[in-house]
Amino acid sequence: MTPPLLTSPTAFASLPQPTGAAGAAARPVLYDNHGRPLEYVRLAVTDRCNLRCFYCMPEQGIKYLPKQELLTYEEMERLVALLAGLGVRKVRLTGGEPFVRRDLVPFMDRLTQIPGIEELTLTTNGVLTAPHVADMARMGVKAVNLSLDTLDRARFASITRRDELPRVMDTFYALLAAGIRVKINAVVMDGQNTQDLLPLAELTRELPVDVRFIEEMPFNGGSHEATPATLPWNYHRIREHLELNLGTLTPVPTRPGDTASHYTVAGHQGRLGIIAAYSRTFCGTCNRLRLTAEGGLKTCLYDQGVLDLRALLRGGASDAEVVAALSAAFRNRAANGFEAESQRPLHQLSFESMSTIGG
After folding, report:
1. Is 333 annotated in some ligand binding site?
2. Sorting pLDDT into bands at 50, 70 and 90, what band is 341?
3. Does 78 belong to an annotated binding site?
4. Spatial separation of the C-alpha atoms in residues 358 and 160, rounded to whole Å
5. I want to staple 290 with a disulfide (CB 3.0 to 4.6 A). Which of 26, 150, 169, 298 is the partner?
């Protein structure tokens, strides 16, 4: 079996290295071929969603996977346990919308019991989430990413093609009341919701929340003509717009692996963030992997998928064989999103839906 990369590159020498009692060996840290630690997996539990956000999928929706093609909860638990043994410590559940899948909360409970998993979070649109907030707080979920592109009910219905803003706001306030940190994710779309940037940003004045503005990406199940250079609202313009209206944005030091550049504003309890998701300025310290709902491994959001884990699991592969296949994939990871995109076959240059990829 080819061993995973467990050396400690100089670029990450400043990262805290956990050690056991009385000089016991530190838990493993897995590095890719570019010296980046891989310690965070985004796990899509379903490709189904109860909204139809136009930047994520076509109006008619997408062709959902048959149930038998989705990973079972047991298969996902096995993969997370193997990844935890290699050094992954954080799991974020995504979709689609995670709470569309039945029995999600018991599955979350079991994930928290896997040795090595230190942090469980999730990304949700908030429509079905409020009834589960108490359970999430009980099991120790510390933070939730809430997708919310506008506070205007009519625009919300236009963007998502569903009139569900009241239920999303119920989730927002339930999370705050439970002491769960809320990170609002808002995709900035020219001609759609740019008038909503300031109302969303104003939430940070009185509330201890992060509001993060994300460059629009091409993952809508169709084509996308803009490039990072021609994107109407790139990260530069988003910051300029916020500073023009709110005053100076003071940068917060970033940690390796952070996708957002965070800022504080004088007099605000919360923070603002900007995610250059299409410009891809954060690739150099990316520490995340993606598992799609059908068991595909993506070592970059922009790649076409590098390993069919479902086939391995259902083909009878041993744990050692799965680990060997994972290790080989990690040793051939693209340097950044542009390289990963350039390696896609020509017939895959029209990007799939984000609901299919997994958040």
Report:
1. no
2. confident
3. no
4. 17
5. 298
